[in-house]
Structure formats: C-alpha cells, structure tokens
Amino acid sequence: MFERRAAAERWDRRSPIPFWIHGGSGGALMCSVQPAGPDAYDVCAADGAPLARITRRAGRVVPWPRRVRWSVQFSGTPQAVKGRVGSGFTWLLYVVTSPFWLLFFLCMLVFSLFEGDTADTSLDGPTRTRWRTPGAGTALDYRGISKVYHYEPRHLDVRVAYAQAVLHAWERVR
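Request: output the structure for the sequence above.
Response:
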C-alpha cells in the first residue's frame, strides 16, 4: 500500500523535505514523515513501520467551489480521518462579505506602504480545519484565530496527529 520514493528523485519545491518528530521522555524519536508523491506523505513509526498516509487535495473554484481537503489513511485498517478547511457557512459568509474585505485589504496595503512593513497584508479565507472520523466525531481540530490544535487521543494516534499538525502548519505558511 505504501511505496517508498526513490532516493535519486528530486524533491518537489512544494513538498517539505522528509522530517522527524521527536518528543516524549528524553526526546526520543516518535515518527518520521516522508513525501510519497505530490501532496501525499507517509508517516512511519520510530522502527520504520508504516503508520499512515496523509494526503492533501487542493481547493479549486471550477467546476464548483471546493475547499482544501486532508485525509489520513491508516496502514492496515480501513479507518480514515478526513478534514476540510473552513465550513460551508464560513466560506459563504466570506464570499458575501468579500467586497468589504477587498476594501479593508487596500486600506491595509496603503497603510503598510507608509509604515514600511508589508508582512501582514494577506486575505486568508476561513482557516478552521476539523479532521473527523466516521461515527466517532472530531479527532483533530485546528482553530485559526487562536492557532491552536485540539487533539482527541481516543480517535487518532499521537504520532499521526503531530505529523498532520506539522504538515498543516507547513501548508498554511507556503
């Protein structure tokens, strides 16, 4: 089910390089995350056993508006955790109020040119992301305003939750 990427292949600029998550007592290795393809990542335990595959599907406007979607498929089980960025209501509210956001953005841009700092002049849409398991509820919840992840240990392995949070944060930055 999980294929390893050839070491000779060049890494895609859009995907993060392989990374390792350390934690717990003494900073022991918890897991490693390897890119497995475009917007797909394999999460492996410290001993190299595959834990899950995390995939990201980009949002698009045509043929109809779609939000960014995340899915976590666990190795050896049919269980999956799926997440979407924002809710239908928040995206509708964002689109309806977009003329005001555009005016606000232009005012911020003019002010930042006088101030000299253009670091915070972005128009992001809704950012809250919830990863849910079928029939069990929310496993991981990212709240965009406070930039905090809430985790439910009964529904998601802590190693996979950390890997998903790092990939999600990486995607938010790029």
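The beta strands are 19-23, 28-37, 40-45, 50-57, 69-74, 80-85, 129-133, 137-143, 148-151.
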